[in-house]
Write a structure and sequence with these properties.
The strands form 3 sheets. The chain has a 4-stranded antiparallel beta sheet with strand order 4-7-3-8, covered by helices on one side. About 5% of the residues have low confidence. It has about 550 residues and is an alpha+beta fold. Helix 6 packs parallel to helix 12. The chain is built from 16 helices and 8 strands. It is about 55% helix and about 10% strand.
Length: about 550
């Protein structure tokens, strides 16, 4: 048995490095949860499942394609020999492949946020296959794998993918959104913009923070490699510092820009600004000063509202999740400003950086436009107008992300099928009443419908109250409408829009024996908050009712 002193230090270093690379690869993989939440929060509720599915398929399809084709293409473009040797290679080779794969899948998943709400799933998957097999590998082949961009001046420098991964993904997303065209109703005939808010700021912010956490795998993970002497690389502390400073400055820069533009600190811009700040310093984090991190991160955040407005109002491109200002333009900014804030003696030049940005952008635009252009010409790029109206969750996946209004805390029939009354089992009707007839056999009961428009958050209290008066059977519909409640202003990415149709639930309860007035009073008590907008209750006569299963009519059918 070997003692520690008899073990080759290089073997220990190699083992520790491989374990570390696997750890940060898992951390970067977890960023897909962040992308899923961020994108799901920024789309409408009818398209949430579609975005979640795209994020899962990006990894599932893309990682296999990158293993079989993409990683080898990257090596081939970079001039390497035996480009596909890793497939049957050693453990270290497979670890290195996985590390490259999580970067590739990050670039791929960025695109889904730009084309949300109207791209066919098959079109997105097709593009993911081609991006993983060719488009992204060509970029890494020209840069990290030793291609010709490394020969221009001191070479194009991108430490952890600020331009190679994020800038490329943001430019690809913008191009794809341009080819597909905007979502329905995004623009009016005169070119003016309609704001389409996403359905959950909570999801968006949660996704942002998960991405920020995973970003340490991108930057610090790339830096924390052990040397043959067994010590951590000298740049580790610098990368940890500049990554954190850039993230913080990005949030402040975006919030300040939104405040100057609208007079309010927009929550979504602050979240997007954190990411833009991270993108801005990802290419240069290993060799800039902390002052440079603050400046680049702050500028990357501040450019968000400006670039988004330019894309939205001048270019008329519907970039749903703002992937270009967050990833594209922020990535370009960080790569180009690198020489301005580089530590003394570091080999980086404006010529090399600009050349790299131009080549990567040109290749990405041409390749992406070609793929989506062919799909569009074949009628396979975009869903039909009917499916877009219906929502991609139902049209593409046959699911409803939010199928219920609340917890099933009240059973539909209010209890047992039968109850004892005077020692006899009597069938309990769904309105809580008994069979009651006159001597002549005719029903003397009126059927009435109680309809209420209420606050969604009060539905649980109302359901309980209705059950307690003996009429538990109700129909609930999600509606929006306008009554005496005044309109209010909403804001989405700094743009104001009028909310004059308020979200409500419509509760309908048909009764015969139970007095409609008792049901209405129970609803009123359960729904009352004392504030404008509590809703209204209507009582209406019902001519007849027919039970489908038995054919019973009148009160017995109720």
């Amino acid at each position: 048995m070997l003692t520690p002193l008899q073990v080759d230090p290089s073997a220990i270093t190699s083992g520790v490095n491989n374990a570390w690379i696997l750890t940060v690869s898992f951390l970067i993989f977890f960023m897909h949860a962040g992308f899923a939440m961020l994108e799901a929060g920024q789309v409408r509720s009818k398209n949430v499942a579609n975005q979640l599915t795209k994020n899962m398929l990006t990894w599932s399809v893309g990682v296999i394609v990158y293993f079989l084709i993409g990683a080898g293409v990257s090596t081939l473009v970079g001039g390497g020999s035996n480009p596909f040797g890793y497939i049957t290679g050693s453990s270290a080779g497979w670890v290195g492949w996985l590390y490259g794969a999580v970067f590739a899948m990050t670039a791929a998943t960025i695109v889904s946020g730009a084309v949300a709400g109207r791209a066919k799933l098959r079109a997105y998957v097709t593009y993911t296959i081609l991006l993983s097999a060719v488009i992204y590998p060509v970029v890494t082949g020209l840069t990290w794998a030793g291609g010709f961009l490394t020969t221009i001046g001191p070479g194009f420098q991108d430490f952890a993918g600020g331009m190679i991964v994020h800038g490329m993904g943001g430019i690809a997303g913008l191009t794809a959104a341009w080819v597909l065209g905007p979502r329905m109703d995004r623009y009016n005939d005169d070119g003016s913009v309609n704001i389409i808010p996403g359905h959950s700021l909570t999801f968006a912010v949660l996704g942002t923070l998960i991405l920020c956490f995973g970003w340490y795998g991108f930057n610090v993970g790339t830096s924390a490699i052990f040397s043959d002497a067994g010590v951590l690389s000298d740049q580790l502390g610098r990368v940890a510092l500049t990554t954190t400073m850039g993230m913080a400055a990005g949030a402040i820069g975006a919030g300040a820009a939104a405040l100057a533009k609208t007079g309010k600190v927009d929550t979504l811009y602050v979240a997007n600004g954190m990411l833009a700040g991270l993108v801005g310093i990802t290419s240069n984090t290993n060799a800039i000063t902390w002052i440079g991190a603050l400046v680049i991160g702050g500028l990357a955040g501040a450019q968000l509202p400006v670039v988004f407005e330019f894309v939205e109002k001048r270019l008329k491109i519907d970039d749903v999740c703002a992937v270009f200002p967050v990833h594209g333009s922020a990535g370009v900014l960080g790569a180009v400003l690198f020489p301005l804030f580089a530590v003394p003696g570091y080999g980086v030049s404006f010529v090399g950086q600009i050349a790299g940005v131009v080549v990567i952008a040109a290749w990405t635009i041409v390749a992406t436009a070609l793929v989506f252009g062919v799909l569009k010409a074949a009628g396979q790029a975009r869903v039909s107008p009917e499916h877009e109206r219906e929502g991609l969750d139902v049209a593409e996946h046959g699911v409803n992300t939010y199928p219920e209004f609340g917890e099933p805390d009240v059973v539909a029939d209010g209890g047992d099928d039968f109850r004892t009354d005077g020692g006899e089992d009597v069938e309990l009707r769904t309105d809580g009443g008994h069979e009651i007839r006159t001597d002549g056999g005719e029903d003397e009961r009126d059927i009435k419908m109680v309809v209420a428009m209420l606050r969604p958050e009060k539905l649980g209290d109302v359901k309980q109250a209705i059950a307690e008066v003996g009429a538990p059977s109700i129909t609930v519909t999600n509606v929006s409408g306008r009554g005496s409640q005044p309109a209010k202003k909403g804001q989405w990415r700094g743009e104001e829009y009028t909310v004059d149709l308020h979200q409500k639930v419509k509760v309908e309860c048909v009764v015969a024996d139970v007095p409609a007035e008792d049901v209405a009073e129970a609803i009123r008590e359960g729904a009352n908050t004392g504030e404008p907008g509590d809703g209204k209750i209507f009582i209406m006569p019902v001519d007849n009712a027919i039970q489908v299963r038995t054919g019973k009519e009148g009160p017995d059918a109720v």
